[in-house]
TrEMBL record:
Residues 108-184 form the DM2 domain. InterPro entries: SWIB_domain, SWIB_MDM2_dom_sf, SWIB_MDM2_domain. Residues 76-86 have a biased composition (Basic residues). This is Related to Protein TRI1. The keyword Repeat does not apply. GO terms for cellular component: RNA polymerase I upstream activating factor complex. PROSITE patterns: SWIB_MDM2. Keywords: Nucleus, Transcription, Transcription regulation. Transmembrane segments: none annotated. Residues 76-106 are annotated as: Disordered.
């Protein structure tokens, strides 16, 4: 994989952030898929790729990742109870997994977050879930044709996007930058009474 491209680890973290999943158990398989994808891209002669073709390829890779994730879960379920794990340890492991999975993934994916004023200017909304924000950002990018025609991973930001993402941004850095513009409503509400006491 060329040095100028993002590392598989960085791309894997971006995928985890984007889809609100934990790929740590699958990191070898995911890294292998990422490297295969880049190697395939290097082998192809340089040509303009149709957006639908890119989306179809991305869909296939997402499906492979999902199948690998499902397969890994099946393996771990089959291995539970084998070896030296006692029933009490097994139960506590399951409870920890349920708590972790239930709180982080569901909260990240579905909880409505407050958008910064700069992000509100782009999306025209004050509150969305993280997945809705990502979807609407991509809708905006496609609607305004902001992907670099020579490198579809790079977004050439317009006037509304520059305050949030800068002049240009890769699809992998976008999620990290978005985090700075999304706020938990509970945190904001907790701070408001403190601000009001100063105004008295």
């Amino acid at each position: 994989m060329p040095k100028n491209l993002d590392s598989p680890k960085r791309i894997r973290y971006a995928l985890q952030e984007l889809f609100a999943v934990d790929l740590e158990k699958l990191k070898k398989k995911v890294n292998k898929l990422i490297i295969q994808r880049f190697e395939r891209l290097e082998e192809l002669p340089t040509k303009k790729v149709d957006a639908q073709e890119l989306e179809e390829n991305d869909r296939k890779i997402a499906q492979q990742l999902q199948e690998a994730f499902i397969e890994e879960n099946k393996k771990s379920k089959r291995n539970v109870g084998k070896g030296k794990i006692t029933k009490s340890k097994e139960k506590s492991i399951k409870e920890k997994r349920k708590k972790k999975r239930g709180t982080t993934n569901n909260l990240l994916a579905s909880k409505n977050l407050l958008l910064s004023p700069k992000l509100q200017n782009i999306l025209g909304e004050t509150e969305l879930s993280r997945t809705q924000v990502v979807k609407k950002i991509w809708d905006y990018i496609k609607k305004h044709n902001l992907q670099n025609p020579e490198d579809k991973r790079e977004i050439l930001c317009d006037g509304l996007m520059k305050p949030v993402f800068g002049k240009k941004v890769t699809m992998f850095d976008m999620n990290k930058l978005l985090s700075k513009h999304l706020y938990n409503p509970d945190d904001v509400l907790e701070q408001k009474p403190v601000e009001n006491t100063h105004n008295d």
